[in-house]
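Many introductory courses stop at the sequence. We go one step further.
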Amino acid sequence: MRFLPPIGIVSHYVNSNLVHIHTITKFHSLGLQNNHYYKFQIVFEMQKRGYRPDWMVDWVRIKQRWRTQQIINKKAKHKNHTRVRLRFRLTRFGWERLSAKRHGIKYNMNDKKYRNTMKIKFVHRNDLKKMLKQLPGYTLRLRDPPLDNNPNIQRCRRFVGSYFG
């Protein structure tokens, strides 16, 4: 058995270009001097690189982004429809949607009802809540049409005379 230095003293020696550190702790007092796993762990810790690329990663920002994604997923509907994205499209006039029951039981519909179901409609304010539940990745904002202050368009134009202006 090798001579063990007293508890608390650290001895360094170089063997085959590796720095071994033997820390004298409770392992020696318990008779676990030949714990090879513990020695290899210390040797591995001594061979750290000077440049650590993981220190250059902005972990705070990554975790923050992950948390926001978790919140978005938590608010989403759990079993959202797989083809719900195919029913909505964004045009320059706003969000358009295809109504459901397009290819349902067609013999119960008359011509007018069938044409109405096949039409592409604009998304109503009430439908936006459903969209937000099923499509959490989309950012949807309620926007009213622009206000036009042209007096010729307003309702009061009927009551004003023809020489208005």
